[in-house]
């Protein structure tokens, strides 16, 4: 394996490049291993055999070649897998890590994985889990990434004053950069509720009165401008700005207030701009959830949504039950868009939550 790249800071382009490079290196190494295993069995066309089998039973199959990490993982964890018995030390821990990695890689390719050090650390940890047990060299890169990232995050890494020779940033495929650029445009325009405000402070100033649950401008109520949206608007603003006070509103209705001294997006004055009802917006929250059939479980803590949310989640559970089956994985973005992870294709939004109808601390503003 070539000398591997490590981050020196939280540069987004570098992080995206490293994720892409680690994925390609791991896929190539896994593929070489499988080629050798199948070759010894006289099955040199094993990838085509898998393709024909999947299509014969009606499974979707769009992979172009075996050097695709998502293909390798997806095939390895199938009940009727043709490759799982060839992978060393295949067990429940390997399968769990592989499924988690497949989810993150799908998020990455759809522009939903936030390009920060925490995401890179999670990706590296998952690669380490499956590569180490299988004895692959990419595990060394994954472990080096984990060590470097932890030092950057805790402030113990000393960045070289001058890199000589300069460290090359791994290439990022154009399809990946395109989707990330589109996501960033969306976030730069109007961030998720509860997130830091982007851009200049709006000029129109209103006052949110917590006691009267009304909005005022120059001492006069402006609720008439909201019509039937008054209650919904004020409820949302108080959710993210519970003490009330001064709120600044842009001409498009996006509204900001200072929460503990930080300018944050607290809601909309009037209707939120329409978008594609099925579109999944923003970056995925880096946590794993599972639909139990009657609830949502946070896999890391084991907590259930019905006992962890502030508000009732009955409607959310009812909607999810119409689209999911027991043990389906569930993802949510920082916009609150809930969707189930898909192996191929583009994920579609099922429903939406806010910070009080989701696990505490998992969404912006909570």
Largest sheet: 6 strands, antiparallel
Strand proportion: 5-15%
Lateral strand order in the biggest sheet? 3-2-1-4-5-6
Radius of gyration: 24 Å
Number of helices: 9
Helix content, binned percent: 25-40%
N-to-C terminal Cα separation, in Å? Answer: 43 Å
What string gives the helices and strands in order? HHHHHHHEEEHEEEEEHEEE
> Runs with pLDDT <50, length 5+?
none
Q: How does the overall form come out from the CA principal axes? A: globular
Q: Quick one: how many beta strands?
A: 11
Secondary-structure-derived class: alpha+beta
Number of domain units: 3
Taking all residues together, what is the mean pLDDT? 90
Characterise this structure.
There is one protein chain. The chain has 366 residues and is an alpha+beta fold. It folds into three domains: 12-158 and 174-180, no CATH class; 204-268, no CATH class; 289-357, no CATH class. The protein is 37% helix and 13% strand. It is built from nine helices and eleven strands. The protein has helices at 12-40, 46-56, 69-76, 92-109, 117-133, 138-154, 174-189, 230-240, 314-323; strands spanning 204-209, 214-217, 220-221, 245-249, 254-259, 262-268, 289-291, 296-298, 329-332, 337-340, 351-352. It has a six-stranded antiparallel beta sheet with strand order 3-2-1-4-5-6, covered by helices on one side. Strands 8-7-9-10-11 form a five-stranded antiparallel beta sheet, covered by helices on one side. A hairpin with a 2-residue loop joins strand 5 (254-259) and strand 6. The mean pLDDT is 90.
């Amino acid at each position: 394996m070539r000398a591997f790249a490590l981050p020196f800071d939280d540069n987004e382009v570098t992080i995206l490049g490293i994720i892409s490079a680690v994925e390609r290196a791991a896929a190539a190494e896994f593929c070489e291993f499988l080629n050798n295993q199948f070759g010894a069995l006289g099955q040199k066309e094993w990838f085509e055999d898998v393709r024909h089998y999947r299509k014969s039973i009606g499974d979707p199959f769009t992979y172009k070649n075996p050097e695709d990490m998502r293909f390798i993982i997806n095939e390895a964890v199938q009940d009727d897998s043709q490759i799982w018995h060839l992978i060393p030390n295949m067990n429940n821990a390997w399968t769990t890590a592989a499924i988690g990695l497949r989810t993150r890689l799908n998020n990455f390719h759809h522009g939903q994985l936030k390009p920060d050090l925490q995401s890179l650390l999670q990706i590296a940890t998952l690669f380490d889990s499956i590569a180490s047990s299988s004895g692959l060299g990419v595990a060394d890169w994954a472990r080096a990434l984990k060590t470097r990232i932890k030092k950057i995050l805790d402030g113990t890494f000393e960045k070289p004053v001058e890199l000589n020779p300069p460290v090359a940033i791994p290439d990022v495929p154009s399809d990946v950069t395109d989707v990330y650029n589109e996501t960033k445009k969306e976030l730069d325009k109007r961030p998720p509720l509860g997130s830091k405000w982007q851009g200049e402070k709006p000029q129109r100033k209103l006052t949110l009165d917590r006691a009267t649950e009304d909005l005022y401008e120059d001492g006069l109520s402006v609720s008439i401008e909201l019509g039937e949206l008054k209650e919904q608007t004020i409820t949302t603003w108080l959710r993210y700005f519970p003490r009330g006070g001064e709120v600044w509103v842009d001409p498009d209705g996006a509204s900001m207030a200072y929460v503990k001294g930080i300018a944050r997006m607290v809601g909309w004055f009037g209707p939120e701009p329409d978008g594609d009802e099925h579109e999944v917006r923003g970056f995925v929250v880096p946590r794993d959830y599972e639909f139990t059939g009657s609830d949502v479980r946070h896999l890391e803590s084991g907590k259930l949504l019905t006992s962890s949310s502030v508000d009732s989640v009955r409607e959310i559970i009812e909607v999810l039950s119409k689209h999911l089956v027991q043990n389906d994985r569930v993802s949510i973005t920082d916009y609150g868009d809930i969707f189930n992870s898909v192996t191929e294709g583009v994920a579609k939004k099922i429903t939406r939550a806010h910070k009080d109808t989701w696990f505490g601390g998992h969404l912006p503003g909570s």
